[in-house]
TrEMBL record:
It comes from the Bacteria. Pfam families: HSP20. The lineage of its organism: Bacteria, Pseudomonadati, Verrucomicrobiota, Opitutia, Opitutales. Residues 42-142 form the SHSP domain. This is Spore protein SP21.
Amino acid sequence: MNRIIRYTYPRSANLFANRNPWAGLESEVDRLFESALADLAAPARAPRFPVDLYEDKDNTYVRAELPGVSREAIAVEMVDGYLTIAATRKQGEETFSLNRSVAIPEAVQADKVTAAYENGVLTVTLPKQEQVKPRKINVSVN
């Protein structure tokens, strides 16, 4: 059964006196259609897997859990500021493709990126450029 929800514009005392009452309607309708159609569009994309991003003073790390994927079935690329991880996993007769791209800051030494895969966890190490690393500055007393 479909339900019709009436959109009402919130009223407040003179905060938005000159604002058009229809201003938020377009984005609200877009959000409604995106959430309603998300399940229909999902099979068209390759399944995504979660990644963790963290950093220390020298490196940025991207960590992805890829259980059941062999090391040979993983491809890692760095192109135009994006780190792309692609993997394939076989389960019986079926083969699943996984793909994820992560925007990486420009402050990374792309030629020194390394990747390690151990116990189903891929860790990509992205060394920071020297000028980006935090530098301790001594304060002298006069």
